[in-house]
Amino acid sequence: MLLNGREIEFKDQAPVIINDRTLVPVRAIFEALGADVSWLPESMKVVANTASVNVTMTIGQNDYFVNGEKRTLDVPAQIMNDRTMVPARAAAEAFGCSVGWDDASKTVIING
Q1: Pairwise CA distance, residues 25 & 50, whole Å
Q2: How many degrees, rounded to 5, is the angle at CA 89 between CA 21 and CA 5?
Q3: Mean pLDDT, the chain, whole residue set
């Protein structure tokens, strides 16, 4: 996965493809996008914030919120190997990035 031409490193859990969607560890993708990330275990929510964007995703739910606006995930956020995984496209687009796919290298390309 590339963000503005630089590879995002996923140390503990590699990206996974489910239903043609690439899921990535939430902390790695949101921090790479410049957000502060919080995990709320009692409500099973992930919250990511920058100065201008607030994103909330809940484990097992297709709905998520960007600055209070409801959006829908194709694949819900989920826990794999003790890591919260979210669709890369939704995570990047929540912060105003464009997302592409290089089929030859099987690489998600994020710009923004």
Answers
A1: 18
A2: 115
A3: 95
